[in-house]
Protein backbone atom coordinates (compact mmCIF):
# COMPACT_ATOMS: atom_id res chain seq x y z
CA UNK A 1 0.00 0.00 0.00
CA UNK A 2 1.18 3.51 -0.86
CA UNK A 3 0.73 6.11 1.89
CA UNK A 4 0.66 9.71 0.71
CA UNK A 5 2.03 12.05 3.40
CA UNK A 6 0.64 15.50 4.07
CA UNK A 7 2.95 18.53 4.52
CA UNK A 8 2.92 18.18 8.32
CA UNK A 9 3.94 14.53 8.09
CA UNK A 10 6.73 15.42 5.68
CA UNK A 11 7.87 18.14 8.07
CA UNK A 12 8.09 15.54 10.84
CA UNK A 13 10.07 13.23 8.56
CA UNK A 14 12.43 16.10 7.76
CA UNK A 15 13.06 16.54 11.49
CA UNK A 16 13.44 12.81 12.07
CA UNK A 17 15.68 12.55 9.02
CA UNK A 18 18.05 15.18 10.41
CA UNK A 19 18.33 13.24 13.65
CA UNK A 20 18.91 10.00 11.77
CA UNK A 21 21.67 11.60 9.72
CA UNK A 22 23.36 13.00 12.78
CA UNK A 23 23.36 9.55 14.39
CA UNK A 24 24.68 7.84 11.26
CA UNK A 25 27.48 10.39 10.81
CA UNK A 26 28.53 10.00 14.39
CA UNK A 27 28.55 6.19 14.04
CA UNK A 28 30.56 6.54 10.83
CA UNK A 29 33.25 8.46 12.72
CA UNK A 30 33.45 5.74 15.35
CA UNK A 31 33.88 2.81 12.98
CA UNK A 32 37.41 1.46 13.30
CA UNK A 33 39.50 -1.70 13.18
CA UNK A 34 39.34 -3.77 16.38
CA UNK A 35 35.85 -2.62 17.32
CA UNK A 36 32.96 -5.05 17.69
CA UNK A 37 29.79 -4.35 15.74
CA UNK A 38 27.90 -4.63 19.04
CA UNK A 39 29.69 -1.46 20.22
CA UNK A 40 28.03 0.36 17.30
CA UNK A 41 24.65 -1.09 18.29
CA UNK A 42 25.10 0.19 21.86
CA UNK A 43 26.09 3.62 20.61
CA UNK A 44 23.08 3.66 18.28
CA UNK A 45 20.62 2.87 21.07
CA UNK A 46 22.15 5.57 23.27
CA UNK A 47 21.95 8.22 20.55
CA UNK A 48 18.38 7.28 19.63
CA UNK A 49 17.25 7.71 23.25
CA UNK A 50 19.17 10.99 23.62
CA UNK A 51 17.33 12.31 20.56
CA UNK A 52 13.88 11.26 21.80
CA UNK A 53 13.45 8.92 18.86
CA UNK A 54 12.75 5.17 18.71
CA UNK A 55 14.51 2.41 16.80
CA UNK A 56 12.43 1.34 13.79
CA UNK A 57 14.20 -1.96 12.97
CA UNK A 58 14.40 -3.44 16.50
CA UNK A 59 11.73 -6.20 16.64
CA UNK A 60 10.51 -5.31 13.14
CA UNK A 61 9.38 -8.71 11.85
CA UNK A 62 11.54 -10.13 14.63
CA UNK A 63 14.76 -8.32 13.66
CA UNK A 64 16.93 -8.43 16.80
CA UNK A 65 18.75 -5.06 16.79
CA UNK A 66 18.35 -1.34 16.06
CA UNK A 67 21.22 -1.16 13.57
CA UNK A 68 22.28 -3.26 10.59
CA UNK A 69 26.06 -3.56 10.13
CA UNK A 70 26.90 -5.40 6.92
CA UNK A 71 30.57 -6.03 6.19
CA UNK A 72 32.20 -6.84 2.81
CA UNK A 73 30.22 -9.72 1.22
CA UNK A 74 27.33 -9.07 3.58
CA UNK A 75 24.80 -7.06 1.61
CA UNK A 76 22.11 -6.10 4.14
CA UNK A 77 20.79 -7.04 7.58
CA UNK A 78 24.14 -7.80 9.18
CA UNK A 79 23.22 -8.33 12.84
CA UNK A 80 25.57 -6.59 15.32
CA UNK A 81 27.33 -8.97 17.71
CA UNK A 82 30.05 -8.90 20.36
CA UNK A 83 32.06 -11.50 18.47
CA UNK A 84 32.13 -9.67 15.14
CA UNK A 85 35.23 -7.50 15.05
CA UNK A 86 35.79 -4.91 12.31
CA UNK A 87 39.15 -5.28 10.52
CA UNK A 88 41.43 -3.01 8.57
CA UNK A 89 40.32 -3.05 4.89
CA UNK A 90 36.66 -3.84 5.61
CA UNK A 91 33.79 -2.13 3.79
CA UNK A 92 31.23 -1.48 6.50
CA UNK A 93 27.64 -0.54 5.72
CA UNK A 94 25.62 1.05 8.50
CA UNK A 95 21.86 0.95 7.94
CA UNK A 96 19.49 2.58 10.42
CA UNK A 97 15.83 3.42 10.67
CA UNK A 98 14.30 5.56 13.38
CA UNK A 99 10.81 6.59 14.26
CA UNK A 100 10.34 10.23 15.29
CA UNK A 101 6.98 11.80 16.15
CA UNK A 102 5.38 8.68 14.70
CA UNK A 103 7.14 8.70 11.34
CA UNK A 104 9.97 6.54 10.09
CA UNK A 105 13.05 7.52 8.13
CA UNK A 106 15.64 5.04 6.82
CA UNK A 107 19.21 5.67 5.63
CA UNK A 108 22.49 3.90 5.15
CA UNK A 109 26.07 4.60 4.19
CA UNK A 110 29.19 2.55 3.53
CA UNK A 111 32.58 3.37 4.97
CA UNK A 112 35.98 1.86 4.10
CA UNK A 113 38.08 1.06 7.17
CA UNK A 114 41.79 1.93 6.86
CA UNK A 115 43.37 0.61 3.70
CA UNK A 116 40.77 -0.52 1.16
CA UNK A 117 41.64 -1.39 -2.46
CA UNK A 118 41.14 1.15 -5.26
CA UNK A 119 38.44 -1.04 -6.74
CA UNK A 120 36.54 -1.10 -3.47
CA UNK A 121 36.92 2.64 -3.06
CA UNK A 122 35.47 3.08 -6.53
CA UNK A 123 32.59 0.72 -5.72
CA UNK A 124 31.70 2.92 -2.75
CA UNK A 125 31.91 6.13 -4.80
CA UNK A 126 29.87 4.77 -7.69
CA UNK A 127 27.11 3.47 -5.41
CA UNK A 128 26.88 6.87 -3.71
CA UNK A 129 26.81 8.57 -7.11
CA UNK A 130 24.01 6.22 -8.27
CA UNK A 131 21.96 7.28 -5.25
CA UNK A 132 22.52 10.99 -5.88
CA UNK A 133 21.52 10.59 -9.52
CA UNK A 134 18.44 8.61 -8.52
CA UNK A 135 17.27 11.33 -6.13
CA UNK A 136 17.12 13.79 -9.03
CA UNK A 137 14.75 11.40 -10.83
CA UNK A 138 12.35 11.25 -7.88
CA UNK A 139 10.07 13.98 -9.21
CA UNK A 140 6.33 13.99 -9.75
CA UNK A 141 5.32 12.58 -13.12
CA UNK A 142 8.36 10.31 -13.43
CA UNK A 143 8.00 6.58 -12.90
CA UNK A 144 9.70 4.26 -10.46
CA UNK A 145 11.57 2.83 -13.46
CA UNK A 146 13.29 6.20 -14.05
CA UNK A 147 14.90 5.75 -10.64
CA UNK A 148 15.73 2.09 -11.31
CA UNK A 149 17.20 2.87 -14.72
CA UNK A 150 19.66 5.55 -13.60
CA UNK A 151 20.87 3.37 -10.72
CA UNK A 152 21.47 0.38 -12.99
CA UNK A 153 23.15 2.50 -15.66
CA UNK A 154 25.49 4.25 -13.21
CA UNK A 155 26.57 1.02 -11.54
CA UNK A 156 26.90 -1.14 -14.66
CA UNK A 157 28.71 1.50 -16.72
CA UNK A 158 31.33 1.58 -13.98
CA UNK A 159 31.82 -2.17 -14.44
CA UNK A 160 29.99 -3.30 -11.31
CA UNK A 161 26.74 -5.19 -10.78
CA UNK A 162 23.47 -4.38 -9.09
CA UNK A 163 22.17 -6.66 -6.33
CA UNK A 164 18.72 -7.65 -7.55
CA UNK A 165 17.28 -9.29 -4.47
CA UNK A 166 17.20 -6.09 -2.42
CA UNK A 167 15.00 -3.14 -3.31
CA UNK A 168 14.15 0.37 -2.18
CA UNK A 169 10.66 1.06 -0.87
CA UNK A 170 8.11 3.56 0.33
CA UNK A 171 8.72 4.55 3.95
CA UNK A 172 7.15 6.72 6.65
CA UNK A 173 4.18 5.16 8.39
CA UNK A 174 5.86 1.78 8.15
CA UNK A 175 9.42 0.61 7.56
CA UNK A 176 8.43 -0.91 4.22
CA UNK A 177 5.58 0.56 2.16
CA UNK A 178 4.79 0.37 -1.52
CA UNK A 179 6.02 1.07 -4.08
CA UNK A 180 9.02 -1.26 -4.35
CA UNK A 181 11.96 0.42 -6.03
CA UNK A 182 14.20 -2.12 -7.78
CA UNK A 183 17.75 -1.09 -8.60
CA UNK A 184 17.41 -2.46 -12.14
CA UNK A 185 14.83 -2.16 -14.89
CA UNK A 186 12.26 -4.88 -15.48
CA UNK A 187 9.56 -5.23 -18.08
CA UNK A 188 6.16 -3.77 -17.42
CA UNK A 189 4.59 -0.67 -16.04
CA UNK A 190 5.83 0.92 -12.82
CA UNK A 191 4.17 3.31 -10.41
CA UNK A 192 3.97 7.00 -11.37
CA UNK A 193 5.55 9.22 -8.71
CA UNK A 194 3.41 11.83 -6.99
CA UNK A 195 4.13 14.56 -4.47
CA UNK A 196 3.44 13.30 -0.97
CA UNK A 197 5.21 10.00 -1.64
CA UNK A 198 8.19 9.37 0.61
CA UNK A 199 10.69 6.77 -0.56
CA UNK A 200 13.79 5.01 0.68
CA UNK A 201 16.05 4.72 -2.36
CA UNK A 202 18.86 2.25 -1.76
CA UNK A 203 21.27 1.17 -4.49
CA UNK A 204 23.53 -1.76 -3.65
CA UNK A 205 26.44 -2.69 -5.92
CA UNK A 206 28.85 -5.62 -5.94
CA UNK A 207 32.27 -6.28 -7.46
CA UNK A 208 31.18 -9.77 -8.49
CA UNK A 209 28.01 -11.75 -9.18
CA UNK A 210 24.63 -10.61 -7.89
CA UNK A 211 23.66 -14.09 -6.71
CA UNK A 212 22.82 -14.08 -3.02
CA UNK A 213 22.54 -16.46 -0.07
CA UNK A 214 21.03 -15.92 3.38
CA UNK A 215 23.12 -16.59 6.49
CA UNK A 216 22.09 -19.30 8.98
CA UNK A 217 20.94 -16.48 11.29
CA UNK A 218 18.01 -16.13 8.87
CA UNK A 219 18.66 -12.41 8.30
CA UNK A 220 21.98 -11.51 6.78
CA UNK A 221 21.95 -11.52 2.98
CA UNK A 222 25.37 -12.17 1.42
CA UNK A 223 26.83 -12.52 -2.06
CA UNK A 224 27.21 -16.17 -3.00
CA UNK A 225 30.68 -15.60 -4.48
CA UNK A 226 31.68 -13.56 -1.39
CA UNK A 227 32.32 -10.47 -3.49
CA UNK A 228 32.36 -7.12 -1.71
CA UNK A 229 29.31 -4.85 -1.74
CA UNK A 230 28.48 -1.19 -1.06
CA UNK A 231 25.12 0.26 0.00
CA UNK A 232 23.82 3.82 0.29
CA UNK A 233 20.28 4.81 1.18
CA UNK A 234 18.38 8.04 1.63
CA UNK A 235 14.80 8.78 2.53
CA UNK A 236 13.40 11.34 0.08
CA UNK A 237 10.13 13.13 -0.56
CA UNK A 238 9.00 13.21 -4.18
CA UNK A 239 9.18 16.84 -5.32
CA UNK A 240 8.18 18.89 -8.34
CA UNK A 241 11.64 19.14 -9.91
CA UNK A 242 13.65 16.56 -7.95
CA UNK A 243 13.42 14.44 -4.85
CA UNK A 244 14.00 16.26 -1.57
CA UNK A 245 16.49 14.41 0.60
CA UNK A 246 15.05 14.12 4.11
CA UNK A 247 18.18 12.44 5.50
CA UNK A 248 20.95 14.68 4.15
CA UNK A 249 24.45 13.32 4.86
N1 LIG B 1 16.95 -0.57 5.47
C1 LIG B 1 16.61 -1.94 5.57
C2 LIG B 1 15.68 -2.31 4.43
O1 LIG B 1 15.06 -1.44 3.89
C3 LIG B 1 15.95 -2.19 6.87
C4 LIG B 1 15.43 -3.50 7.04
S1 LIG B 1 14.47 -3.60 8.39
C5 LIG B 1 15.12 -4.82 9.32
O2 LIG B 1 15.57 -3.46 4.05
F1 LIG B 1 14.54 -4.72 10.43
F2 LIG B 1 14.87 -5.97 8.75
F3 LIG B 1 16.40 -4.64 9.44
CO1 LIG C 1 15.45 0.55 3.46
Question: Could you explain the architecture of this structure?
Answer:
With 249 residues, the chain is α+β, with helices and mostly antiparallel strands. The chain has a single domain, classed as Creatine Amidinohydrolase (Alpha-Beta Complex), CATH 3.90.230. Helix content is 29%, strand content 25%. It is built from four helices and 15 strands. It has a five-stranded antiparallel beta sheet, with helices on both faces. Strands 1, 2, 4 and 5 form a four-stranded antiparallel beta sheet that branches. It has a three-stranded antiparallel beta sheet with strand order 3-12-11, with no helix packed on it. Strand 4 (91-100) and strand 5 form a beta hairpin. The longest helix is centred in the N-terminal third of the chain and has 24 residues, at 7-30. It is globular. The two termini are 28 Å apart. The structure holds 2-amino-4-trifluoromethylsulfanyl-butyric acid and cobalt (II) ion. 2-amino-4-trifluoromethylsulfanyl-butyric acid binds next to strand 4.
Amino acid sequence: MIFIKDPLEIRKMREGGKILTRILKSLEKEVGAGMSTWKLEEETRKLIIENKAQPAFLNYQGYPTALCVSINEEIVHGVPSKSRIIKNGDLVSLDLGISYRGLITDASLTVGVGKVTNKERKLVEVTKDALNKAVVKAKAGNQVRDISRVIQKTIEEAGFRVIRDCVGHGVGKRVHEDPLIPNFVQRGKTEILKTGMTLAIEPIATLGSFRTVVDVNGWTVMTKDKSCTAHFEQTIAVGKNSGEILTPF
